[in-house]
Amino acid sequence: MCGFLVKDSPFNAATWFLLANDPIAVDPWRSFGAWIRQPPAAAGDFPFTHAHNGKKLYEVCRDVPRIAKMMNEGIGRDIWLFSKALLAKCGSHFNGLKSIVDVGGHTGTISEDLAEAFPGIHCTVFDLAQVVSPAGDVFQEIPPADAVFLKVSSSSFQCMQWVLCDWSDESCVKILKQAKAAVTSSNGGGKVMIVEMVAGHQSCSDREATGTLLYLDMVIMMTVEGKVRTEPQFAKLFSEAGFASYTITPVCGLRVLIQLYP
């Protein structure tokens, strides 16, 4: 365990421990009682915004440099490790792709690994302004490509690293529609690749995994407007966004690769 707290270790998780104990992360838990006793919350009002004068997490990341720094360091370490597992378990799913947009691509770690493993793939890193420049907005437009890869979101917090679990059902459908437009405008086909947690899936079905998912669902409820979803809940979103079919492949721990086909 101590090895994960050594800053020079490639498996370093020290940043996440520091972030989880930062007042900005702790204050929403302290204000939870006051939040739950108030009249029914309006859309976009959850313990994090209640504790931070209406500011959402991505706004705090933008305005508080130490939080942005810890977020970027923590996500970067996690991506470094996850990228190896993704290519080892699911590398074949990238065969034949000529272009990919890495949504929530952070500083491009997975794109670099993909480009090294598959020299023929043109990778575009797509994220918010506090992470990369030029920046993008998944609600406005995603560049056309053979595949759109949805994973780490810079609006994530603690262990909440996956794009769709940060957002409401309505927002998820909007994101998925933009992703569908991107892959169909490229060559009329393509696919959307999503890294997520799926409650109740075989990769997350034992008691320990269920307990972890319940904890993560609580963290999401405190911090953003999303939730941990079951496969039927995901399937409903995919259908509403216009996708014809999907597959789920376990990758690492609670994380799975979901592939959507128009």
UniProtKB/TrEMBL annotation:
It holds the Pfam family Methyltransf_2. The keyword S-adenosyl-L-methionine applies. GO terms for biological process: methylation. The keyword Protein biosynthesis does not apply. This is O-methyltransferase C-terminal domain-containing protein. Gene3D superfamilies: Vaccinia Virus protein VP39. One of its GO terms (molecular function) is O-methyltransferase activity. Coiled coil: none annotated. Residues 29-244 form the O-methyltransferase C-terminal domain.
